[in-house]
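Rather than argue in generalities, we have chosen a single entry, letters for residues, whole numbers for local backbone shapes, without further comment.
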Amino acid sequence: MESALFSSSPLSAFVPRSPPSLASRPLRLLSLPFSLLVHHSPHRAAALPSSLAASSAASPRRLRDADAAAASAAESRSSGDRVVARPSSELRMGRPGGSGTGVAGDEKLRSLRELFARPDVAIDAYIIPSQTLTRFFFWISAFLDSIVWNYGNAINLWIESEFIAECFMRRAYLTGFTGSAGTAVVTKEKAALWTDGRYFLQAEKQLSPDWILMRSGNQGVPTTSEWLNDVLPAGCRIGIDPFLFSHDAAEELKEAISKKNHELILIKDFNLVDEIWKSRPKPPGKPTRVHDIKYAGVDVLSKLSSLRSELVENGCTAIVISMLDEVAWLLNMRGSDVPNSPVFYSYLIVEISHATLFVDNNKVTPGVLDHLKSAGVELKPYEAILSEVESLAAKGAKLWLDTSCVNAAIVSIFRSACERHFTRLATKSRKQLNNGASSDLISIKSEDIRNGIPNGLYKVSPVAIAKAVKNKAEIEGMKNSHLRDAAALSEFWCWMEQEVKNNLTLTEVAVADKLFEFRKQQEGFIDTSFDTISGYGANGAVIHYKPTSDSCSFVGTDNLFLLDSGGQYVDGTTDITRTVHFGEPSAWQKECFTRVLQGHIALDQAIFPERTPGFVLDVLARSSLWKVGLDYRHGTGHGVGAALNVHEGPQSISFRFGNLTALQNGMIVSNEPGYYEDHSFGIRIENLLLVKEVDLPNSYGGIGFLGFEKLTFVPIQSKLIDTSLLSPMEIKWVNDYHSQVREKVSPLVNGAVRDWLWRNTRSLP
């Protein structure tokens, strides 16, 4: 699944806020997705409330526009059955709306703008992210001139998880755009939405004429800060919810808008979208569970001991963990607060002698409580995180904060409390000196004050890499869950081929629902790992397409069908994409598919030195497409958690060269090159890969080398392969892969399904 890379804890509270301590605000959901992320892959947004789903349905006018676009794309065919797809920007030109001026009178925009004038708000613009930490759209500005967009900083490329609870889907509620990545900006007169290439087509369909669509990464498209500096007069006030922005993102935004003397306003006591969202869903409250040690591999005490060693080595006394998947991994716990991701809204503070989990008490069962007590972890209310951070600062604690992940509200509270603490110490020191005390005995030195506050270490969380490098039990669980998943997919594809052969009517939604039924029958299945992307024909070109029952297409035999799906199992997480044709593919479709397959094979067979970052390998997956002037608008690989988030970091394989994280033995990444022709068809082939050490005859410079081991075993449709384009080595790869699929999956299926599996794993001629 195509993703954007990613982080974890959300965000703004459902409970009343407390202005003095801000203790009533929930904070962040870091998973990582980019998100995001950092980013890269084709995934979908979380399930929407019915009110949002209704708003995303295609209107008759939009359906006519889509038909016209498809006809235009068809008319663009030239000799040789080759389609030259028109850019989506051209297809949108000339259509009514899209001015972003609010002329159509969007009621939500009008209500939001009315709040701007309130004395306790007093702003000229408001930024609404995807209810996740937004680092992503601000950071790309440094690279837009070279037409390269990145999803994070050079050290940590993750954004908040693209999967969030319904009550935090503020941007989707306001804009109607349900893609997992995007940032909305509203001024008193204009409204604009930024999203990346995975969602251009989807945003065109879902945004009303009151919104301007900003296609991030395209030449000439301004960043959010550039746009604000352009459309607002100098000296304006731009508001954000600091619980939804990482500290780094807020600082970068503050610096960028200062060029026009704009002021960044942290609106801490309430979220403006919440103020106008009258039927906002309730926050999740389901219980958490213990992740069994046979799947976790390492007990909680050992994980906390390793983390405390990191604290001591870096001279710290405590660390704040705000990424939800990091909390879940450290404590060997899982939850269900977030659709598709087994995490729960929480914070964790680990000190040298003890640890504290901040979570709603009603989510902690007696069994979970005993599990935590045995590891020396105490509980405090979720809302107490800020007051605890203040308390630590008042005690002079040196706190480790990953400012690329921890939200701006926490860092702001900590710094303010540190300043108060040092002011008290400075006052005490002056009194000691005035009373004749020796300068060697005073509480604080003058140079300490001049050098600023030393009580914070602002550094990437050490948990990210520890979680990304899987242990033996996690690897075994991933392998086992992938085999059961392969059995479910074999049953599904066998069923679907027969349904199509019998000329039965199948919608994209019905297909996704049926796949869920097959997965549900597998041992240890919990949920899907993301909303299934079931796209026929032109819908397959929408990289993060999510079909709905009132606007989906029928799956036929005249075009390609793309299915990107995954499962959450008790012992692992899966993510797989296959593209098939139930009729006769055109020569052009076969060539495109084969070139995508060649890229997939090239990456799968890569061997590379240790300490190689993922972006170095990305070219391998694109080279065959580049040879004929083709490409795709997403990264090639994202990290995957073990029974955790389907998008995790910090590793990725992407053309976005900002992520310098080296691939390491034990990491898991996706291999998912693709090709998409707007309004025509989409192609993607995705397997998950385990990074492993390889034994070579040489070791240049004493450096070890790494390669990949396949985790996914599902047939690749042979009828779509143009063997004349493949080398003997590539043909051997396909045949060897299908031999492995047959050997590993056949024992798990029977009858017609086994026959289907053998037919679809025959050797290429």
